[in-house]
Amino acid sequence: MNGTDRHKSGVSGTAGRVGVTRAGFIGLGSQGAGMARRIIDQGLPTTLWARRPVSLEPFAGRATLAPDLITLGRTSDVVGVCVTDGRAVRDVTLGPTGVLAGMESGSVLAVHSTISTDDCIEIARVAEAIGVHVIDAPVSGGGAMADAGRLTVYVGGSDDAIARARPVLETYGDTVLHMGLLGSGLRTKLVNNALNAAHFALAHDALALGAALGLDPALLGDALRSGSGRSFSLEVFVGLGSFVAIADHVGPIMSKDIDLFERESRAAATESGVLLDAADRFLALLDHPRLSDLHASGDDR
């Protein structure tokens, strides 16, 4: 089932009780907490786990708090993972104490973290050996959109696995897009983030050029937001006036994601054109260059 599908399925195809999907969720940061709240608010039986006990405190009495990952896996039909990076995803999914060690055949692991497709494929191979489905399901929208149930979810994987996971995905995603086979969701998210970064750099430089030409920055911002050159990034930048307020939060995330985008492009032996250059320009404006650039320069920040 490709493309946008807003149909809300009332029956799950998961390993739990007929008609009831038991959800598990790992990672309760600024975005993951909102996603978990949406699952609970939509009435699905929910089990949670997080590295930091303080992250679980707001959910006491609202969800089951698992003592370990194996217990969470054993009591869930669909497990969502929303942690920081590929290493963190591997840590919570693989090995004798990872969530896969407790998951039943027929259940689904949904990787919401933006990681490399190689990491996702590695996890899927381990899962396949025990009959567990893996889908990559990175999201776009941020914490506020997660709370509102209005995330966009880019999904890669089999039709069957996505159908099993859909009752959970649709609690926090009002747009769930099946992009293709495993890895397609991640590649979509990386292209989206590269384009978003490029738009931010272009918005900054357009307004700076306009000021140099003698245009009033406020009037130019309003004009551009009303014209054909408008974008989400332009809207945000005009509202902020600079990147100072978002650099420390957005910088590390975009540094990781643009680095992953460059590696995916290089692995596919394809040219990224001006897209990567413009995205790198945004990272430079944030003072958060790509991870590979930091390593090449010997910067160990």
Describe the protein in words:
The protein is an alpha/beta fold. It is 50% helix and 13% strand. It has 13 helices and 10 strands. The radius of gyration is 20 Å and the shape is globular.
Quick recap of the structure?
This protein is α/β, with parallel strands linked by helices and about 300 residues long. It is built from 13 helices and ten strands.
By CATH, the topology of the largest domain is Rossmann fold
Q: Write down the overall geometry.
A: globular
Strand arrangement across the biggest beta sheet: 4-3-2-5-6-7
In N-to-C order, the SSE pattern is: EEHEHEHEHEHEEHEHEHHHHHH
Estimated share of beta-strand residues: 5-15%
Total helical elements: 13
**Looking at this structure, what is the CATH superfamily of the largest domain?**
NAD(P)-binding Rossmann-like Domain
Beta strand count:
10
Relevant terms:
Rossmann fold, N-(1-d-carboxylethyl)-l-norvaline Dehydrogenase, domain 2, 301 residues, 13 helices, 50% helix, 6-stranded parallel β-sheet
Topology:
Blueprint: E1 3-4, E2 23-26, H1 32-41, E3 46-49, H2 53-56, E4 64-65, H3 69-74, E5 78-81, H4 86-93, E6 108-111, H5 117-128, E7 133-136, E8 139-140, H6 143-148, E9 151-156, H7 159-172, E10 173-180, H8 184-212, H9 217-225, H10 232-240, H11 244-267, H12 274-286, H13 291-297
Parallel strand pairs: 2-3, 2-5, 3-4, 5-6, 6-7, 9-10
Antiparallel strand pairs: 1-10, 8-9
Helix pairs in contact: 8-10, 8-11, 8-12, 11-12
